[in-house]
Design goal:
The complex is a heterodimer of chains A (559) and B (359). Chain A contains 23 helices and 2 strands. With 559 residues, chain A is mostly helical. In chain A, strands 1-2 form a two-stranded antiparallel ribbon. Helix content of chain B is 24%, strand content 33%. In chain B, helix 3 crosses helix 4. The chains are: A mainly alpha (559), B alpha+beta (359). Bound molecules: adenosine-5'-triphosphate (ATP) and magnesium ion. The site of magnesium ion (MG) has 4 residues of chain B, from helix 1.
Chain lengths: 559, 359
């Protein structure tokens, strides 16, 4: 019998394996072990003894807690329906009409990404609260509760849905439209037979993303939820309010379930969408149509007004001396050092966190993606790595944060010293946002000619040289995208870090939460706006920088 | 062929992708300085074989020896070859000079030596002035030359080319064929080129390896491959060929329709028993007008198609039971014999050109 040839691993392969192993270890310690800690905690009592399902039984026998499941599901489903509808109609207008100011509308629609999810709630208090400017529009309904939560969540999730649906619509095949036209199908019929089916994966995917974001979001229900409890706020209350860590763990695992299911379905949808994409289609060019363009223009204006009103209200609240009694403008609310919540220090901490997260996260994510994509052999390990890299997306921030308490705060953990430091904030944030960054990197790497590595090997070039001289420069746009993504999210995130910050590592987003909690709503709005200014400036800077860098280092792109 | 030890020796090489066998039991020798083409239809395993030789996708079984060294399990970086891909895989962010110098810079040579070598290579591939440009600023043919220069920069013992010309348009392709062949001869570098273009293989190769379905069909000089195709597949795949249902009568005798002809005993026809149904094969250009051999037959010209320097005629005869023969005649001949549709002529099928293959 012939003996199979066993490929000798090259030095490159060994070194890449070591790199991958190191990053896998990071993910293992920063993700898998904490998740295990929270899982085991849910089966233990206060003294750390194993009690089986006792905590779960207690949970399901406490109606005030189980009621939140229903609340969470209701809120998330309603938000999903509204947000996806708005996103789809807007995306439809942006890609299929010839209306004016498309670019501007798109920028406005993406603004909510730059602010914490606490901010729309604060704006709604000013608009529809007890002394709200236009509370009459609610006809006596209370903004504190489901209405407020849904409006906030729609604001918060809209850009995410819009991006996904725009992508789905942009790959529509013009030939199908021409075919429909030649068959004399009307606009409406074309819409239902061509547009909708073509975008269906995008729509479903957007739906699941919005659902997951909403059910795991903690900012909006915290600020505007009133006594309407949802799973996310329950975790917070159990842990921070009642110090009942075991019950916090149980609720976390219950929250993990719908998020996990939604995540899995979304991945499957994304894969199908990719398959659609690779079948090269002819791009669709919309033709002017006065009435349709006008309708779409009006609709985009309405959506933009909604977004700008929320943002503008916060800005107004931040600049008013004492609403509604003294409406003179002042910068008093920006004197954060006079309030609880960590003062200006928390803002600087946030900046520090965002920078570290962007730098360390980008390096980690891109190196990890490179090793997984370009390394050879060791398939089991590679698949395991892929799984670990995808997992963070399915884990709600609060769950991750709580898991970190259990894992890092445990006295027999040698990493215990990290607790309450900037380091643990960076670790949790990098881990929390790992997946999207990883996918961006993988996509960029996949677009490169796979033979670069073969050529480099034939020229006896070590991989790290090809990585620094070819791969990284060619992928620079994606690398910049990853870093800005991590930066912006590190500025706005509340959920994971709310359990982890210490006396000297409070953050701006947490300060918004705490000031709002303490009734200092105007300073909370001011701090929220500080986050917005920062993110907006960084975005603009990033735009200029990548254009400059592109022009300089990537002159090869233009011919 | 050279009597010395082969430079590259592939023995019983098999490559599987899961259950699918892409190559089975390939055995092949390539000699120092030879230009060998792997020729075959799409999906036959040419690239797979090339990648196994390079160590990019290591074979499931079998050995590869290069310059007397068993490299079967070695990664590409520990083998000695230069490679050019169909996509060229030029580094888009480096200038042409930097691309060519890429491999040299690992060998710890002084900068001015590298510079001289790059200039020399640019000269060699006929692009002395283009060093400062980026790949995207070059035409396909120029990119091809740069990829070639980069591959030979480190003076590898073996040059591997995977369909290097297939992305170019016809004119450039013909020009580059000559350039590559010239360069190879000048450098004396052992070269293996993958192609599915028979013309390319016939004009460039010292020897051709015809592959089909993961098996070697025939190895031989272009002349041998063309003149004495070893299998029906090779006969069919290369050039054009008339295939006529026939029966073997005896050694070197075959019956086509109602007539008997002498035929060549090439191509393993000895293994075919008498009375077995076979295919008689003859190339259209081997059919001669007149009774130059004993194998003659009177036919009618059914139609004539003008193809530039020659003419393709459809020939039929009642004695051939409705079979159609294609024949290529030179334009001169057509004129001197005043051939046209309906003409009656006598043609001969030279026995050495009439081959038989088992069904
Ligand atoms: N990585 C792989 N996994 C599975 N099957 C493969 C893989 N690579 C090649 N094959 C299969 O092996 C066979 C031979 O492929 P190969 O690329 O060698 O063909 P080729 O002769 O180079 O064809 P072409 O002229 O189209 O390039 C094909 O049927 C192909 O589908
Ligand atoms: Mg191929």
């Amino acid at each position: 019998m012939k003996t199979p040839i066993k490929a000798k691993t090259s030095r490159d392969d060994r070194q890449m394996l070591v790199f991958m192993g190191v990053i896998a270890c990071y993910l293992f310690v920063a993700l898998a072990l904490p998740l295990y800690a929270i899982l085991s905690k849910s089966f233990k009592n206060d003294d750390g003894e194993f009690v089986g399902l006792a905590n779960y039984l207690e949970y399901f026998n406490t109606p005030s807690l189980t009621y939140s499941i229903q609340n969470s599901l209701t809120i998330s489903i309603i938000t999903t329906l509204i947000s996806v509808t708005i996103a789809f109609t807007l995306a439809y207008g942006l890609s299929r009409s010839c209306m004016r100011f498309k670019g501007l509308f798109k920028i406005i629609a993406l603004v909510p990404i730059l602010v914490p999810s606490l901010l729309p709630g604060i704006a709604l208090i000013y608009l529809f609260g007890r002394q709200g400017m236009i509370r009459g529009l609610l006809f006596g309904h209370d903004i504190y509760g489901p209405i407020g939560i849904v409006i906030s969540e729609v604001f918060f999730t809209l850009p995410h849905a819009l991006i996904i649906i725009m992508t789905a619509l942009s790959i529509a095949d013009a030939r199908l439209y021409e075919a429909a036209q030649s068959l004399n199908a009307g606009k409406i019929k074309t819409f239902f037979t061509v547009t909708l089916p073509g975008a269906r994966y995008g729509l479903i995917s957007a739906g699941f993303v919005v659902f997951t974001l909403t059910i795991t979001d903690f900012g909006a229900p915290k600020v505007i939820g009133g006594d309407f409890n949802v799973l996310a706020t329950d975790i917070y209350k159990q842990v921070i309010g009642q110090q009942n860590f075991e019950m916090g763990a149980v609720v976390s695992l219950i929250l993990l379930l719908p998020a996990g299911v939604a995540f899995t379905v979304d991945r499957i949808m994304q894969r199908k969408q990719v398959a659609l994409l690779s079948a090269r289609a002819v791009a669709y060019e919309p033709k002017p149509s006065t009435s349709f363009d006008w309708i779409m223009f009006c609709w985009a204006t309405i959506v933009s007004i909604f977004i700008l009103t929320i943002l503008g209200t916060c800005q107004y609240a931040a600049l008013i001396k004492f609403y509604p009694y003294d409406l003179t403008l002042s910068l008093n609310n920006y004197q954060f050092d006079l309030m609880d919540g960590g003062g200006w220090e928390s803002f600087y901490n946030s900046l520090e966190l965002a920078c570290w997260t962007a730098v360390i996260g980008t390096v980690l994510v891109f190196l990890g993606a490179y090793m997984v994509e370009k390394g050879k052999g060791f398939h089991l390990g590679r698949n395991l790595f892929q799984f670990l890299a995808m997992l963070p997306m399915a884990v709600p921030g609060l769950v991750l944060g709580l898991a970190y308490i259990f894992f890092f705060n445990s006295p027999n953990n040698p990493l215990n010293f990290l607790y309450h430091t900037m380091a643990i904030l960076v670790i949790s944030t990098v881990t929390h946002f790992y997946t999207v960054a990883h996918l961006t990197a993988v996509t960029a790497l996949k677009q490169m000619d796979p033979e670069f590595e073969s050529v480099a090997a034939s020229l006896k070039t070590p991989f790290y040289r090809t990585f620094t001289r070819i791969t990284a420069p060619v992928c620079l746009p994606a690398i910049l995208d990853i870093s800005i993504y991590l930066f912006v999210n590190a500025m706005t995130t509340v959920s994971a870090v709310v359990f982890l910050y210490g006396p000297h590592t409070s953050l701006a987003s947490v300060a918004v939460l705490n000031m709002d909690d303490a009734g200092d709503i105007a300073p909370a709005a001011a701090m929220g706006m500080m986050i917005f200014y920062t993110n907006a400036s960084v975005r603009i800077l990033h735009g200029l920088l990548s254009r400059g860098v592109l022009r300089k280092t990537q002159s090869w792109r233009s011919r | 062929m050279s009597q010395s030890e082969p430079y590259l020796k592939i023995s019983d090489l098999t490559k599987r992708f899961g259950d699918f066998t892409a190559l089975s039991d390939i055995t092949l020798e390539v000699f120092e300085g030879e230009f060998v083409c792997f020729l075959g239809p799409s999906g036959c395993g040419k690239t797979t074989l090339l990648r196994a030789i390079a160590g990019l996708d290591i074979q499931t079984y079998g050995t590869v020896e290069q310059a007397g060294r068993d490299v079967s399990s070695l990664p590409p970086a520990e083998r000695d070859f230069g490679i050019v891909f169909q996509s060229y895989a030029l580094f888009p962010n480096l200038t042409i000079e930097k691309n060519i110098a890429y491999g040299l810079e690992n060998h710890k040579q002084p900068a001015n030596k590298i510079r001289d070598r790059v200039a020399e290579l640019l000269q060699l591939v006929g692009m002395p002035e283009q060093g400062k440009k980026y790949p995207a600023q070059l035409s396909g043919g120029q990119q091809q030359r740069v990829a070639l220069a980069r591959a030979i920069a480190i003076s590898p013992g073996l040059l591997l080319l995977d369909e290097p010309l297939s992305a170019l348009d016809a004119k450039v392709r013909v020009k580059l064929r000559h350039e590559i062949k010239e360069l190879q001869r000048k450098l004396g570098i052992t070269t293996i080129m993958v192609t599915h273009d028979q013309e390319e293989a016939l004009t460039m190769a010292d020897r051709i390896v015809v592959i089909n379905n993961g098996l070697i069909e025939q190895v031989g000089t272009p002349e041998q491959i063309y003149r004495e195709p070893a299998t029906r597949f090779v006969a069919d795949f290369i050039g054009s060929m008339n295939f006529l249902p026939a029966a073997k009568v005896s050694e070197n005798r075959v019956r086509i329709g109602q007539l008997e002809f002498s035929c060549s005993d090439a191509a393993g026809s000895a293994e075919i028993t008498s009375d077995q149904s076979v295919h008689a094969a003859i190339r259209p250009e081997d059919i001669l007008v007149g009774n130059a051999s004993t194998n003659y037959i009177d036919v009618t010209v059914d139609s004539i198609e003008f193809l530039g320097s020659f003419v393709r005629a459809d020939l039929s005869s009642p004695q051939l039971d409705g079979l159609i023969l294609l024949a290529d005649f030179s334009a001169n001949l057509v004129r001197s014999e005043s051939l046209s549709a309906g003409s009656q002529i006598r043609i001969s099928l030279p026995p050495e050109s009439l081959l038989i293959y088992a069904e």
